[in-house]
Every structure is written in structure tokens, then in C-alpha cells.
Amino acid sequence: MTPPVLDFDSCYRAVSARDSRFDGRFYTAVKTTGIYCRPICPARTPSSRNVRFYRHAAAAEAAGFRPCKRCRPELSPGDPGWDLRGDLVGRALRLIDDGAADDTGVAGLARRLHVTERHLHRLFVAELGVGPHAVARTKRLLLAKQLLTETSLPITDVAFAAGFGSVRQFNATMRETYGFTPSELRATAGKYVRDPGVAGPVSLRLRLHRRDPYDVEGVFSFLAARAVPGLETADGTSYRRAVPGGTITLTPQDGHIALDVAVADTVDTRQLNRVVARCRRLLDLDAEPDAIAQALRPTSLGPLVEARPGLRVPGAFDGFELAVRAVVGQQISVAGARTLLGRIVARAAVPGGLFPPADALLDADLTGLGLTNRRVETLKELSARVADGHLDLDGGQDPSEAVAELLSVRGIGPWTASYIALRALRDPDAWPAGDLVLVKRMAALGIPQDHVERWRPWRAYAALHLWSSS
């Protein structure tokens, strides 16, 4: 099977115009140089007879091309087409971003998706031209390239942070694929490297690129209003939270988000690929604002779309955590939910101030925190289903199956399930039906309820526009 052919003329026009709307959607490989680039590469546009176009960086690398050192494909925002898809390939790509293939291999990835490894490989080749192993390897290499270029992490730590099993494997793979060693790339970056024998905290900064326009104020204000005491601190200009082994801070910059990572020891950088992927989802960095605006602007939401260009749907750093937030927040104020969630974190948090995972919350004593008995029962049943694998809220389960499983939990109704789908499952068309704030905002703006159907397939973004309109 061969992957769908990209429209050559459309791609070449985008490259000639350096159109940022296509950044991350395809890559341009130049046969005369052996290099592949982003559509926005500032280098001179190559002749059309010398270029090929690939849907994924892994396909370009499998064809023998190396990433451009000038436009740096590792900085591309994700393809919004894959980010929004709930089918098997879309979910598999999100899990690869999350480090699932590094943790358990492609066989483990296939098991989590409940398909055979052979079937998964066949689907990847049909869609992308390469298998999941090649995609995972390219993700590791591009993250390593970014770490070597932007940080002072020792090469040994870069290898493990990017998901390689050994330094020898890292060196061999980079030389074979890119034609240079990690040491050679680090030398050209001119980064000061900390002595690996020096113990102590490790701090590094990475750039998370986004598509503009990006509603910084809307995203960070949303997160600040819902920051859980003891877990997060946030305001309109930054967001900080605990992660395994340390903390992260996200700060808006011109054209990107700065991700600062502070971990207790270099061994904790092995979670870095997962941290990067989850931060991108939390901030909805891979959305396509122009497409969303074009669909919603002609509707009754037009004035709101004009007032908040680049609005995003804040996601979740952890799917189970978001589900607990949604259950606790049922029929109470945002401030009240924050208070209760802070008490849960104080009572049940694991070392490092992390939000309790499903198995920890299942065993925790939640009495005396201000939760009703029914709410406690719902949280326990939710925790049990996540802990035993019946419910996967981090990308492995078909969204419709996950919503059906959520609705079978006593105490979770359509509003809660839709809210979880909107933020944790990244469903762009999720609509929290019955939300009182949405009903009041639509009434105040004179928008009939039947207009909700006109906002498909972007109803999640319509909900954010209405929630943000006061």
C-alpha cells in the first residue's frame, strides 16, 4: 500500500510563499542537497524538478533525507490533521508523542490500541509511507537534535531524555540517519555543557512552537482560574506545575512558548518527551486557528471570533486528572472546585506533589474533605476503571468508546463526559450540553439554541468563545 499523494502544485505554492499555515503539515525534500525542510524555510526556494513532498518527517528520513539545520524541522508545530483525528493512526501518533513506543516498543503500543502489530504497521504505511517504528525513531532523533542545539544537557543525558536505550545506540542512529554524531552537532551549537560528574538539579529550556494567532491571555487566564493549590501556580503570563521528578514552567514568548524544566537529577529527564507532548496538548499548540475561524466567523459567533483571534481549547496534562477535576466541579463554582481539588491533592498526592494517579486515588481516604458521599463513590468508580485499563483517557482509546465508558460510571452524565472529551480527549466537536453558563451567554447574545449544530465540527471552540465572552 502507498500513502496518499500530496498535491504537488499546492505544496509547491505554499513553499514558494513560505506559508506558515502549512508548517507541520508536510515537509519538502530537496534531491540535490539531500535535505528536508519546513514549508517556511528561509532558504531559496528550490526548483520544482528537484523537490519531493512528504506528509511526515519520518517518511522524508526513511527516503534518505536529513533535517535542515536552518529551518529546523524539530521545531514544527504538530499537524492539526493528526491532532484532531480519533481513528487508530491518529491515536497511535499521539501515543508515540507521549513516549508509549519508547516505554513498551511498537508491540506494546499495538497492545494498548488493541490491534496486532502487523495491522498497525500496515495502517501506518498506508497513511504515512513508513511504519510506527520509523515514526518513533524520528521523534526521538528530532527531540535529541533540539536538546543538543538548545540546551547544555550532557550527551549521555540527551540520549536517555530522547528515549534511546543506550548512548551507543544514540550515536549510531544519529550518524546513520543524519550523517553526523551528537558531539559534532553539539560543537556547532556552541553550547556550554555541564560537567556530568557534578550532581544537583538540572534546568533546561526548550521552545514549543505554535501557530499564530494565539490567544495567550485566554489560555493562561483559563488555566490560572483553575490552578489547583499544591499542584499548580498560574497567572496571565505563566503556568507552573509539578511533574515526575521536578517542575515545569510555561511562559509565552514571541512566536513560541518557553518550556523551562527543572528536575532533581538528570535521570528524570527520561520523561522529557512525554512532558513536551503533554504541554503541547495542554496549551493546544497544534490547532489550526485559520480553519477554525473560517468555519465559525460566518455564523452567529462571528463577533466573538473577531474579538478573540487565535482562541484555543486548553487541554489536560493528564487525562485522569482532568476527569477528576470534571467530577469534582459538577454543579459548583470554579473556585469551589479548586478548593476541593487542593484538599484531594493534600490528602492523596504522591511524593513530589504530583496529582494522585488512579490507583492512589482508589486507595485514598476521601472522607472529611467536603465531598458528598455520591461524589466520592463516583471518583472511586472512575479510578477503578482507569486503574484496571477499562478506561484510557490519555489517547489510547477510541473517543466514542471512552465517552460511553464514562457515561456508564454512576454520577457521570452527558455534561461531565462532554467536558472530559473537550479537554482530555481533544474532541474539537465536543459540546457540554446543558451547561448553564453557555445557555445564559447564548440567551444574552440572542443566539438560538439550534445554532449549536451550525458550529460543527468546531463546537468545542464555540464553547470556549462563549465561556470567554463575558
Automatic annotation (TrEMBL):
GO biological process, one term: DNA alkylation repair
Name of the protein in question: DNA-3-methyladenine glycosylase II
Record InterPro entries: Ada-like_dom_sf (IPR035451), Ada_DNA_repair_Zn-bd (IPR004026), AlkA_N (IPR010316), AlkA_N_sf (IPR037046), Alkylbase_DNA_Glycosylase/TA (IPR051912), DNA_glycosylase (IPR011257), HhH-GPD_domain (IPR003265), HhH_base_excis_C (IPR023170)
Cofactor(s) for this UniProt protein: Zn(2+)
Keyword Cell membrane assigned: no
SMART domains membership: AlkA_N, ENDO3c, HTH_ARAC
Name of one Pfam family that matches: HTH_18
HTH araC/xylS-type domain residues: 90-188
Catalytic activity annotation: Hydrolysis of alkylated DNA, releasing 3-methyladenine, 3-methylguanine, 7-methylguanine and 7-methyladenine
A molecular function GO annotation: DNA-7-methylguanine glycosylase activity
Top-level taxon of origin: Bacteria
CDD domains: ENDO3c
EC number(s) reported in the record: 3.2.2.21
Record bears the keyword Transcription regulation: yes
Organism lineage string: Bacteria, Bacillati, Actinomycetota, Actinomycetes, Streptosporangiales
A Gene Ontology cellular-component term: cytoplasm
Keywords: Activator, DNA damage, DNA repair, DNA-binding, Metal-binding, Methyltransferase, Transcription, Transcription regulation, Transferase, Zinc
